[in-house]
Each structure stands twice: as C-alpha cells, then as structure tokens.
Amino acid sequence: MSKGKREEVERGQERSRRKLSSDRFLNAALELIQRWGYKKTTMEDIAKQAGVVKKTVYLHWKSREELFETLLLREWLATIEELKQRLAADPAGATISSLARHVVYITINNPLFRATLLQDREMLGDLTHTRVGQTTLPLRMEMVTGYLEQLRQTGLLRTDIEPATQLKIISAIFMGFFMVDQFLPANARFRPEEMAESLAYTLHRAVEPDEPYAPEAVEKVTRTLDDFLNRLIGTLRPIYEQRIF
After folding, report:
1. Alpha-carbon gap, residue 232 to 136, rounded angstroms
2. Largest CA distance in the chain
3. Disulfide-capable partner of 125 in 38, 64, 90, 203 (CB 3.0 to 4.6 Å)?
4. Does the model's pTM come out above 0.85?
5. Are residues 207 and 172 in contact, defined by beta-carbon separation less than 8 angstroms?
C-alpha cells in the first residue's frame, strides 16, 4: 500500500473512531435531557452516563451548550431524513394533511423533536434559541412560505383565505393537537394513531379543497418540499460534521 493510500485509510479510521465516540456522548446527553432537562444536565452527568471522565467529553466540545447544539443538529438531520422517506412512500405525498400525519408519527418516538417543535423550555431551556436555529431561520421561513404557496398554486390548498391568515389557522390547529393532552385526564388523551388521523382530517376539512388530489399536483408539491428539505440538510450537515470530527 502506498504512503498516500495508507494515510487516507488512517484518516478514515480516525473519523470513524471520532464518530463512534461522539455518538456515545450524544446518546448519553439525549437520555439525560429527556430525563432531567437541559438546565439540570451537566457535562459531568454526561461523562458519567457515557462511562468516561469529564475531560474526555471536553476533548470533543468546548462547552455544554456546544454539545447540546450538536445533539439537536443530529436529531434534526435524522428527523428530516425520516420525513423525506415517509413522504416519498405516501401516495398523498406532501399535502398538508399527509405532512401533519407523518409529523405526529415521528414525534411518537422522538421526544426531543417534539420538545423542539413545541419550544418546550422545561426540557430545552435556552436551547429553544440556538445559534444554529437563528442561522437557519431565514431558510426555514422561506421553506414554509414557499411550500404553502406551491400548495395554493397546485390546487392542494384553498385560496379563498389570505395566505397569512391561512398559515395562522394551520399553525393553531397543528399546535392545538399537540398541546391539548396536557389539559385532559389520562384516560381521555389521544392515542397516537387517533391523533395522527384526527389532525390530518381536521386540516383537510379546514384548508384543503374537497376535490380529489391531482396526481401531478401531488408530485410537484412533494418535489418542491423535498428540494427545500435537501437545502436545509445541505446547511445543517456541514455544521454537524464539523462538530463531531
């Protein structure tokens, strides 16, 4: 093996080791933030959970804030990839009711994503306003407005409501479904499948036309949202990889 090839292999092995090590600490942080919340979780707690001394964690991240931001980046990327796969496999594609249904199912197994979605300060503390979140805010707002406009243009969203008002209606319905359980007794709360289907049905009745979806319209809007999600991945992944390697 040539020297250049050997060095390339060694760099690859080192990246793999750092990735495994980073994931070990991030997994520990994920478990603790879901158990205790951001404010109560220290670097020492994370090190203990991962079975290492604290200084080993500091070899990867300079601060607790940087470690947890990296955790959020990892979870955002995983969530976006899962959403892309779900929408691609759904005949209803990226219609607003279909999107809502899949978001519900994703949150069932991802409490951190749910906390991010609801800006849960009890779990996330100051992480509700991260530097990365602020950096990507213009792109995320462009994605939301561009997606809704494409839905309207393709006939997959009603146009007898002003776009700004329509966005508020969608947001209110969406957030209401996710927040209502805290006001209900345990035996009256939504089952996951019930919430997913009820939210999709409510959004359909409120903002989608009654006519059947045109397949070409569904394909077009799904492609548009997929493009936006790919752009978001393209922004987030380099930041994430810079922090774990």
Report:
1. 8
2. 68
3. 38
4. yes
5. no
User: Which two three-digit tokens encode residue 85?
Assistant: 């796969």
Cα–Cα distance for residue pair 72/76, rounded to 1 Å: 6
Tokens of 244: 């774990």
* SS3 category, 140: helix
Contacts of 196 (CB under 8 A, 6+ apart): 100, 101, 104, 105
- CA–CA distance, 64 with 46 (Å, rounded to integer): 9
Where helices occur in 51-191 by DSSP H, the ranges are 54-58, 64-89, 96-108, 111-117, 121-124, 131-153, 163-179
Tokens of 160: 């007898």
What value does the mean pLDDT take over residues 198-217? 96
Which residue has 């999600």 as its token pair? 229
SS3 content of the chain, % helix, strand, coil (to 5): 80, 0, 20
**Residue range 51-61, pLDDT digits in tens:** 999 999 999 99
How far apart, in whole angstroms, are the C-alpha atoms of residue 119 and residue 71?
A: 16
